Structure prediction request, 478 residues.
Amino acid sequence: MTTTTPESVERIVASVVGEVRRRLATSMPADGCCTADGIGPDDGVYPTVDEAVEAAHRAWTAYLPRSMRERAAVVAAIRATATDPANLEYMAEQAVIQTGMGNVPDKILKNKAAALGTPGTEDLTTDAWSGDGGLTTVEVSPYGVIGAIAPTTNPTETIINNAIGMLAAGNAVVFSPHPRAAALSRWLVAVLNRAIAATGAPEHLLTMAAEPSIENTQALMRHPLVRLLVATGGPGIVSMVLSSGKKAIGAGAGNPPVVVDQTADVKKAAKDIVDGASFDNNLPCTSEKEVIAVDAIADLLRFYMTTFGAFEVRDAALLKAIEALVMDGDDPRAEWIGKSATAILAGVGVEAPAGTRVITAVTEFEHPFVQTEMLMPVLPIVRAKDVDEAIQLAIKAEHGFRHTAVMHSTNVDALTKMAKLIQTTVFVKNGPSYAGIGIGGEGYTAFTIAGPTGEGLTSARTYARRRRCVLVGGLNVR
Ligand code: NAD
Prediction:
C-alpha cells in the first residue's frame, strides 16, 4: 500500500496543473487534430510521412536564406524551452511512464545536458586558402531535410540533441521516434516548433508523422526529399539506413566494458562504476555493462562497490532466477530494460536493502550478462589474471562495436594500450562512463554517437556538407 504524504499530494497536484497548463497552451488545429492529445498539423505533426517530409522541405526552403544570427536564435529557443523547469520535469516523468524505462532524476540531468551541452552554430567553421591563385573557402552547408530516427532509451534527449545540431547546420528534420515514446515526441516537436516559430524562423522546421511505425520509418527512408538519414538505435535500424542507398549516419549499439587494474584508485573506481552503471537504470548506450577486474584488486573492488550501492548476488540459484526473469533467450526481456535494481530484485522475491543501485555478480566471461547489451543495472564482474588479459577480454566483450570503453588505472602505458587496442569511439579514463558524453567530463554532449559510420559524437558540423567556393585571382591580400 502506498502512503500519501503532503509532498506526494503536492507533487501530483503540480503535475496535473502543469499538464493542464501545457494542454491549454497547445494550439488546436482548426480543421481537426490527428491525435487524441490535441496535437496536429499546426504543430508540425502530420497524419502521413509524405506530409511531414513535404512540410519540412517547405520549411527548409524558407530557412535557407536566413542568417547565422537567426539560426543561433533558433538554437537559443530550443535550449530555453528544453530547460524550462516544468518542461524538464514533464519530459522526464512522461519518458518513464510512456517507455517504462529509466528514472526521473537522471532523465532530468540527461535532458539538461542535451539542451545545454550540444554545440550550436559556433560548431560550423570555415577552412580557407589564399595565395597567388586567389581565395578558396570550404564552408559547411545544410543537406536539406534530414530523417532522424530516435531510440526509446533517450527519446527526448535525442530529439533535443539532434534538433540543435541539425537546425544549427541549417537543415529541417523529420523525426521518427520509437512508437513507445510517440505521445511524448509529438508533444516535444510541438513545443519546440512553437518556440522556434516565435523567433521569426519558418514554421515546422521539425516535423513527424503522428503515429510512428516501422512502415512510416521505411517510408521516411525512401522519400526522395530526405537527403540524409541519421539512425540512433540498435543494430537492425543502423544496418537498414546504411543499406538505404542514401547518405546515412549510424549510431548503434554498444556493450561498454570497464577494466580495473591493480594500479587504480579502487575505492574511486568502485564509486564511478556504480554511478555510471546505475545512471538512468543503465539505459545509456555508453553505460558500463560489464566489469573486468584484475585478480589483485577484484575482491577489494567488490567490497567497495557494495558500499556504494551494489547488491552482490553470491548464490548461484538467485543468479539463475534473475537470468530467467530478465532474459528471453539471448536477448534482454523488453519489460525489464531500464528497470531499477530494486525492481529486478523484487521480481525474484528479494527485498533490496535501502540504497541499492546496481546488481552485481562474479561470473564467467561467457555469461550472457557479459556478452549481451542488457540496458539494465545488472553488472557482471569477470576476473582476469593481469591487465593484459583484462584488456583482451574487454576487447572481446565489446564485440567490435567501437562504441565505449572505460578503464580505471594510473598506469599510462596500460591506459594507452587499452585505448589503442579497443578502438572505441569513447574511451573514459578514471571516471564514470557518462563523463564521456559531457556529463562531469570535458567536452560537448551528444546523444547520437556514430561509431559504425565514424562521425563520433555528432554535432552541427556532422550534419553539414563541405562545399568549396573558389575566387580566382582575387582577394589575396598577403
Ligand atoms: P531500436 O533499434 O529498437 O529502435 C531504434 C529506432 O529504430 C526506433 O525509433 C524504432 O522505432 C526504429 N526501428 C527499429 N527497428 C525498426 C525497423 N525494423 N524498421 C523501422 N524502424 C525501426 O533501439 P531502442 O531499443 O529504441 O534503443 C536502444 C538501442 O539503441 C541500444 O542498442 C542502444 O545501444 C542504442 N543506442 C545507441 C546510441 C548511440 O548514440 N550510439 C544512443 C542511444 C541508443
Observations:
- Confidence is low (pLDDT under 50) at residues 16-32.
